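Input record (Table S2, row 383):
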Amino acid sequence: MSLEKNYEAIQNELIQISNQLYENPELGDQEFESMKLLVKYLKSYDFEVETGIVDRPTAFRAEYTSGKPGPTIAYLAEYDALPGIGHGCGHNLIATFAVGAGVILRQHVDEIGGKVVVLGTPAEETSGAKVPMSEQGTFDDIDVAMMVHGADVSSESGPMLAMDALQFDFTGKAAHAAASPEKGINALDAVIQLFNGINALREHVPDDVRIHGIITKGGEAAGIVPAEATAQFYIRANERKLVDELGAKVRNIAEGACLMTGASVEISNYELSYDNMITNQALSDTFTRHMKSYSANPVYPAVPATGSADMGNVSQVVPSIHPYAGLNEPGLVFHTTEFAEKTITPDGEAAIHDAVLSLAHTGYDIIVNKDLLHAIKEEFENQ
Ligand SMILES: [Zn+2]
Ligand SMILES: [Zn+2]
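Output record (zinc ion complex):
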């Protein structure tokens, strides 16, 4: 068994896929060309593919079955880009890592048994498709789920924050702001009181909590009392339970803002909620061991949770990891054009080498080592 040889044989194909995704960045749920490219590649290696799963047109499930008993290994691909900055989160790499690992492991399962699944998971940056996948049974027949994200440096899979995306639509009453201000109800004032209330709440929350928002509608003209005003917030914390508690408090603040101003409010979720990421340590340790042996770059311990991702929801239903493959540039910032450009350099190619081989080798280990799969599952049952 030489995974390195398998990798060398497809290296150029993988780099081409990453570059093509980079050249044609598509926003969440519009990644049609990206999906086509990935599906075509997987089909050329005999994967059976179903597109449009969980009612998401750019989602897909690609599967190769050995026909022999054994675990099912899933690699998750993201391929959505960001408005204005293309693949500034490097999801072209994530997709390349997943299909590369899938194609390599697929060449071994006829011998060792089991099944390889590559899941196409759209719109991570907005309303991630891994949420409905986690809710609708996509992972029911899957034993482990793995993905790797690009980053400035490599690090182990760690925690990520649970998150709610709350929208507050306040309605007041328009009036001439100078001639008859007493006849108006100022919806913008309610938004401002919402911000003030949340800022007061900040003093009494644990350190891991992040609440951050913008005003998306704040009136039409200074001479008109704003009849409609809207704010959007992300509320994040280490655990889902705390996010739910904070959500209740923030809703009360919004109601309070209505009492203060006479406005009314409608509260909704403007994007899907993400759960916190629980790394499966047994799975992560295996991956990290391979990453350290395949990569020329250091692999750092997991960093404390700062962001959120729909992989968190996956980790609640199946043993999961979400480690980072470094681009050999400490301090490189996510969601920038610099990050996007870095993905198509030799350092990006090195990240593809490191992540693809580590993912494939981890999958191989799980299939051939029953004790490892047992340890992973036991840890998951106790989480
Ligand atoms: Zn991102
Ligand atoms: Zn990302």
